[in-house]
Amino acid sequence: MTKTREQSSDPITIGLFLLLALIGWVNIYAAEYDPESSVGMFSLSQSSGKQLLWIGVSLLMGLFVYVADYKFFDSFAYVVYGIIMLLLVAVLFFGKEVSGAQSWFQIGSFRLQPSEFAKYATLLAVAKYLSELKQKTLETRQIIFAAVLFLIPMALTILQRDAGTALIYTGLILVLFREGMSPLVLILLAAVVALFLLTLLIPKAVLLVGIAIVALIVLGLVARTVKRIAWVFIVTTLAIGMVISVDFAMNEVFQPHQQKRIMSLINPNADPLGVGWNVTQSKIAIGSGGLKGKGFLEGTQTKFDFVPEQTTDFIFCTVGEEHGWLGTFTVIVLFCILLIRLVNIAERQKAKFARIFGYGVVSILFFHFMINIAMTIGLFPVIGIPLPFFSYGGSSLLSFSLMLFTFLKLDAHRMQMLQR
Amino acid sequence: MNSRSVIIKGLVILTGLGLAIRLFYIQLIDPDYERAAENNIVQKILEYPYRGLITDRNDSLLVYNTPVFDLLVIPNQVEIPDTSRFLQLLEMTEEEFLEQMKKAKKFSYKLASVLVSQLPNEHLAAIQGELINYEGFFVQPRTVREYTYPSLAHTLGYVGEISLRKLKQDTTGYYRGGDYLGISGIEKAYENNLRGDRGVSYRMVDAQRVAKGKFRNGEFDTLPEPGKDVQLTIDIELQQYAEKLMQGKVGSVVALDPKTGEILAMVSAPDYNPSLLSGKKLSTNYEPLEQDSLKPLFNRALQAMYPPGSMFKTVQSLIALQEGIVNPEQKIYCEGDLIGDLAPPGKYDIKRGITYSSNNFFFILFRRTMLQRKDPNMYSDSRIGLTNWRNYVTQFGLGNKLGVDLPNEVKGFVPTVDYYDRMYGTRRWKFSNIYSLSIGQGELQVSPLQMANLGALLGNRGHYITPHIVRYVGEESSLGFERHEVEIDSAHFEPVLQGMEQVVSIGSGRRAYVTGLQICGKTSTVENPGYDHSGFMAFAPKDDPKIAIAVYVENAGWGGRAAAATAGLIIEKYLKGEVSRKYMETYVLKGKFHD
């Protein structure tokens, strides 16, 4: 263990992080810009001013992570996980409710959202657990245990009535997939979601006939052994059962406002001033941007409050409106480059813990990126999750930065980790 | 590299690609979003121009605008901390207030509608001062028409809110619900000039409809263009005098300048004060005026139809002279037994016939005009005669609209061959069925304006200029009104005019006689189902006509009394500037014309 073995943090990733945070900061300023007020983008009375402060705090935190002992994250993974889970429980009793979700601690004028940090803690715990397994492929028992690690914070977040944040944990399926889980689970999950949406879109009778036809075709193709035939029958029966029970699920599992959000995704024009308002206005803002956009500070839909939550969950609307398709495309490309870079870094890890943690970071960022943007353009129900590094908000920015910097810290020590 | 990592990277790229494609579609392909964005933020504000002023021929201001203030409400912004104080301020009861609010809400929650129109001026300052305590209310200025004189109501017309029917008929697309426009008179006829052009400004508003500055720096904004001022041909002093003389009577006076066709005065009695139909008062006053049995809203000068009566004998004389049926010196002996007559039997020529208004003389004249033996059959000859006669009569501006620049002018009626065919059957009528026409009775119908125009035509010895009421629109002269010639040699006028002069000097129209003014006139005692109408038509001076006039006073008996006296006074007033014959004024004002 010599100093020379220690690598510097990956400059490409840090550059992408800074770029995204700065673009986000500029857009937060634009989203709130009022031509009649002379308050500048650095003023702390503005979200943009506060966000700049948070970017500074994030970098400071990055510095702390950089000087910390790299072994800390591995060693204290479960401890951190335990503490944060306790905080998640505590917030249910002592937390403050903000826009319907009881997920905030209020200390003076400072607000903290433990569920944001729970993602980080969960990544540590899952990485710790999986890295200590010896065999190459995962057994079902191990998958279930790993799943429990993230199902606990997921359940606690749902109890805080913050389904959006809870949904993000499903992204960790990608980690399990990378670590050897059968791809069938992924395919099955995708099929269930697809089928669920189809039942809402297509009349039931048509869908049932469709399933039957597909089943017959599959049967014709694969029916060589009794076992396969049995499988086709079982899957078909489950699918039909699901189609029939979707109404029941919609009514019993989802709350009315959640049902409406799902339905407004299917048909936003059904109630354009009610639940469909967010999606409709968000699409109008982005759609009116055209190729080049209306220009910096020239957007109207976001700063005139037609788009709700324009600095946080719907920050992408300002990009779309003021900078057009070139702007949105640039942001998407930046995120894709960052995610692929992180996959590459994860793959070069010699230590299993670092690799799994890296994939965790990729999964969390990827799901946020995908769901947030899909939500603003009407491809996904409106759930309140931020766009990483972009959206205004200290807790989320700190949490994402912490994940990223921790991973870079682990990467910087990848040669030393090998020796353990 | 791990194959599953490649799958994950592929997933990332596919997702990015999917999002980019979807964004490409909504940002570059689908045009709906851009339009929706503009609809969201752009608020169109109409700026109303001032309506043009109306003056008389001597630049006396007749109609102008006065600002009034409406109290408007935006229902979804309303906040009233102290209801009872608020109601007290507006002098409204709670029921009235709730009723108005209901209407406003029905119209729109987000847009302003009028809560109280025309706030009382004396409370305006107090209301405006206190209004800051109540959210959702604001005061907006508007203008209504104000009148200098309580005169000329029929000619000026009035302005009111556009009706649903008119809104649908409006093909220009200029008007919107709630707009004001000219509904009658000059206000209607010159609406396009008086109204000016609205300006439009576009401003941006946020989701709460709060203004956020001009849309695209006012690139599409236009300024309102004020309406053009209109100068009338009316002499307001003469008009007021004529109105005064007609007070308490039913009928009409029209005075023209024969040389130009300019209408100097136009009265329809009974009339009303034009300010009764201005602004807020319109809604309360219209109904009673409409219901009044004497029909004060009806402009008799243009819209009433009477038989011309003996005034028509001037036309009959000229046709006969032109047709060569009679020459100016020719005397015809009249027994006085062909038709009822007040003139004594004896020898009549044109001049004497007019002077004494001999019915029998004109009976004979008309018979000769009608039956010129162009066809041996009397029925056929009557048809030829009527066609020929009618051709002349219409040249005198009768039976058709004269084309005055005011709405609702009537055509009058000059019977045609077809008309009598329908009435009696084809070839089943002849002169003896229609002889009443000879003395301007029967089926003939004329308006007072047409009779005044006849006076102008006689004074001009054979032509008239289309009568009109507007001299200037803005800076532009509205000259160029058409000159209409009658196919009658000007020489034929002399005996007729001499007769008319004698009507005033020694005949039935002596009450119109004014020393020093050569007034030519003709009385009519118009037979009609009720009591006779009194009619008089004149021009003066004989050799250089400056005024032509027609007066009808309904059910006032002889033409020589009410109508001639009134016309004489108006001529005197116009040509001399004042009236010296006070006894005649008193006679007319007293209004007792029956024995």
Structure description:
Chain A is mostly helical. Chain A folds into two domains: 3-181 and 260-418, no CATH class; 188-253. Chain A is built from 17 helices and three strands. Chain A has helices spanning 11-32, 47-67, 71-75, 77-94, 114-131, 140-159, 163-168, 173-178, 183-201, 204-222, 226-252, 256-266, 276-287, 315-347, 352-376, 394-412, 414-418, and strands at residues 96-98, 101-107, 110-112. Chain A has a three-stranded antiparallel sheet, with helices on one face. In chain A, helix 4 packs parallel to helix 6 (140-159). In chain B, strand 8 and strand 9 (211-214) form a beta hairpin. In chain B, helix 10 packs antiparallel against helix 21 (562-576) and helix 14 packs parallel to helix 20 (493-505). Chain B starts with a helix and ends in a 5-residue tail after the last helix. Chain B has 22 helices and 21 strands. At the A-B interface, helix 8, helix 13, helix 14 and helix 15 of A face helix 1 and helix 2 of B.
